[in-house]
Amino acid sequence: MISAGFGSAVCVRPVVSFSNTIRRVHNHGRVTCLATSMSSASMTVARDAEYELENRKYELLNIIQDTQRGLVTTADQRSTIEEAMVVVEGFDAGKEIDLSKLDGTWRLQYTSAPDVLILFESAARLPFFQVGQIFQKFECQNESRGGLVRNVIKWSVPRLLEENEGATLIVTARFSCVSARNIYLKFEEIGLQNINISDDLQAVIAPAILPRSFLSLQILQFIRTFKAQVPVTSPERWSMCRQSVGGLYYLSYLDKNMLLGRAVGGGGVFVFTRAHTLIC
C-alpha cells in the first residue's frame, strides 16, 4: 500500500521556455549596456566641464598676469578681467561655502580694492617702502559657521630690513557665514611681527670686525622677536564705547586652488590662488 501510494504520485516540473530565457538574458544585457553607456556619458560630460573650467581659470590668471596685482590696469583691462571673473563664477554659482576648502592660505594675485591698491601705489612712488606678498589665511577647518582670518602683508624698508620680507603686518578678523556665499568680517587687531633687519643694519648694531657684546646681541634678539598688537576699533561719536570695524565679503568662487571674492558695497574684487607655504 505504501509503495502503491508513492507510485501513484505525479511529479510536476515547471516548463521552462528556452526562448524566454534567452529574451531575459538579452534584455538584462541591454539594461547593463545602457547603464554603462549613461555612466560613461556622464563621466565624459563631467570631464569636459572640468576641462572647460580649468581653461577659464587659466585665462583669468593670464589676463591679470601683467597688472602688478591690479596696480597697472586700463579701463578696458578691468572690464576684461571682470568678464573673465564672471565666467569662472558661473561654474560655482548657487553653492554654499565649503569651509573645509576655504581653510588654508591664499596668495593675492589681483585686486581692485582701493585700500590695497594704495599700498602698491605708495611702494611705487616711495623708494624707502616695499610691499611684498599679500596673503589671506583662513582658519576654519573644524568650524561650521565661521572662523578666523588673517590678512598678512609682507613689507620692507630697503637697507634697513630684508628686501620684500623685512616685516609682517597682520590684520586679524573673526568671520561668520551670514548666507550661502556672504561672510561678515569683524576686525579685531593689527599686529607687527617677524622683523628681519638687513645686513647693513646689523653691521651698525654689531660690527662684524668686533666681537658682539651682550648688549648688541640683546638688541638684535629684541628686534627679531618684537611683536606689536593694536585693537581695531572705530570711534562712536554718540556712545561711550568703541565698536569693532567690520565688513561684508562675498565669496563668488571657491575650489581647491582658486578663491574669488568681492567686497560688498563697491570695495573691489579679489583673485587669490592657493599658497602652499607657511607665512606666520
UniProtKB/TrEMBL annotation:
Record bears the keyword Glycoprotein: no
Organism taxonomic ancestry: Eukaryota, Viridiplantae, Streptophyta, Embryophyta, Tracheophyta
Location of the Plastid lipid-associated protein/fibrillin conserved domain: 56-272
Annotated source species: Solanum pennellii
Superkingdom of origin organism: Eukaryota
Record's keyword terms, sorted: Plastid, Transit peptide
Entries under InterPro entries matching the protein: PAP, PAP/fibrillin_dom
PANTHER family listed in its UniProt record: PLASTID-LIPID-ASSOCIATED PROTEIN 4, CHLOROPLASTIC-RELATED (PTHR31906)
Protein name (database record): Probable plastid-lipid-associated protein 10, chloroplastic isoform X1
Transmembrane regions: none
Cell location: Plastid
